[in-house]
Design brief:
The chain is 28% helix and 31% strand. By secondary structure, it is α/β, with parallel strands linked by helices. The protein has a single domain, classed as 2-Layer Sandwich (Nucleotidyltransferase, domain 5). A six-stranded mixed beta sheet has the order 13-12-11-15-16-14. The chain has a five-stranded mixed beta sheet with strand order 3-2-1-6-10, with helices on both faces. A three-stranded antiparallel beta sheet has the order 7-9-8.
Length: 334
């Protein structure tokens, strides 16, 4: 039996996971999602250890997931994302020096933070990249909850970095694109080129777009396929349905964020936007984005990224939600 690995995410509303075969052409073995009662968790933050562990156990049973090794995706408004330039050192020396270099940027003391640095470019003895800092207590609590469900955490990954890997699969070579995962409370945005993240933002906007229960992880009767469908373009220009103030606010923030990225020295403007996540179902959001962002906008779900393998394609909203979950596990020991 082929070895597999699981990507997992915890949000305020649910826990979702996808199991992939390892190798150059991974395929989905199993996928699913369980809803969470209110107050159990927030985006990537566990509030009730035992309740989350129980929900994870239920998810493994209901979805038929076998592997106990997981890569966990994290992203929330408490995670710091900044551009950072560091002296070019050996990787081990760079990791050792990083807490001292960035301590003035952190919301907590360096010893209470988990730091990651994604190098993008090097010149004149300097390395430029993206700094990510999370509160260590949050990450440790998350890992503890999973261990109570008898899972081994192989890695913790930043969701926008996973979205950059997704961009490397679906975008033309050399193209600068944005992949935007719209969640019910938090939106993750990455600008990437050839799978490398160039710019990332976490945007907190509460859309309040709870998906229908029947469209989240219920078994699908569709036959598995190895052919990946193309992402669909979100066409406007006119918005034919009412748009909530939150959706209007979010599209305005996305437009401003993309404009800010384009104004940075040496930045390549975004040529295409890919929208995904359960929040894209918010009334009017897709049409408004298609008419407001100034570049072609496409919707993206998990079936555009990885073949279904022996599993049935995930239905509806689950396929949209799984893009971020897939992203964090793609390339992990493949």
């Amino acid at each position: 039996m082929a070895r597999t690995i699981v990507g997992l995410e915890i949000t305020e509303e649910s826990i979702r996971a996808v199991e992939l075969t390892r190798g150059k052409r991974p395929s989905v073995v199993a996928a699913g999602e369980v809803r969470l009662p209110s107050g159990i968790a927030k985006d990537s933050e566990v509030l009730d250890l035992d309740a989350v562990a129980l929900a994870v156990t239920q998810l493994w049973s209901q979805a038929g997931i076998k592997s106990k090794e997981v890569v966990v995706g994290v992203a929330n408004r408490r995670i710091l994302v900044r551009e950072h330039t560091s002296p070019a050192l050996r990787p081990d020396l760079m990791r050792a020096a990083l807490p001292f270099e960035v301590q003035d940027l952190l919301p907590v003391p360096p010893e209470q933070a988990v730091l990651d640095f994604y190098p993008i470019a090097a010149s004149e003895g300097q390395v430029h990249g993206l700094l990510v800092a999370a509160v260590s207590e949050t990450v440790e609590t998350l890992i503890t909850a999973l261990s109570r469900a008898r899972l081994k955490t192989a890695a913790v990954d930043f969701v926008p970095f996973g979205l950059a890997r997704v961009a490397g699969i679906i975008a033309p070579e050399g193209a600068t694109v944005a992949v935007i995962a719209v969640g019910e409370h938090t939106t993750n945005l990455v600008v990437a080129q050839n799978g490398i993240p160039r710019f990332a933002r976490i945007i907190p906007v509460d859309l309040g777009t709870n998906a229908p229960e029947a469209d989240r992880g219920e078994p699908s009767s569709a036959a598995p396929t190895e052919e990946l469908p193309q992402a669909r373009r979100a066409l406007g220009p006119a918005v034919s349905e009412p748009v909530s103030p939150a959706a209007t606010d979010l599209v305005g923030r996305l437009r401003n964020t993309l404009n800010f990225h384009a104004s940075r020295p040496g930045a390549e403007p975004v040529a295409t936007v890919y929208l995904t996540g359960p929040g894209v179902q918010a009334p009017g959001l897709l049409q408004l984005a298609g008419s407001s962002l100034g570049v072609p906008v496409f919707t993206l779900d998990s079936t555009n990224i990885v073949a279904a393998g022996r599993a049935a394609p995930p239905p509806g909203n689950l396929a949209l939600s799984l893009v971020t979950t897939l992203g964090v596990v793609l390339g992990e020991d493949q």
